[in-house]
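Figure 2 data, in text form.
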Amino acid sequence: VQPVVSGGGLVQAGGSLRLSCAASRSAFTRNYAGWYRQASGNQRELVADIASDGRIQVADSVKGRFTISRDNGADNDMIHLQMNDLKPEDTGVYYCALLRYGRTTYTWGQGTQVTVSS
């Protein structure tokens, strides 16, 4: 079972994109949800995450531009990453990370490519 990621694509600098991650309530807890990214040649890094109590942390490089949010549903929760004022350095593959019941390591969704042209 994996989170299902949608969104991503090609956008010009200054533009916006919204990523979404669908989390089945039967598989994933609400304890943690995060968005990470990996640029070519770099390690995967945290972009933003949200805990069950609503605490949010955001990477300094995207503060004021990216927003993480969560919509809780009966069968599926949606975790969104709204990305505004995109910059070429935001280019990379973006991943959603969730926790399955009974596990302490993340389950990763399929990556989605975000490309920002200058």
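Caption note: The chain is about 0% helix and 60% strand.
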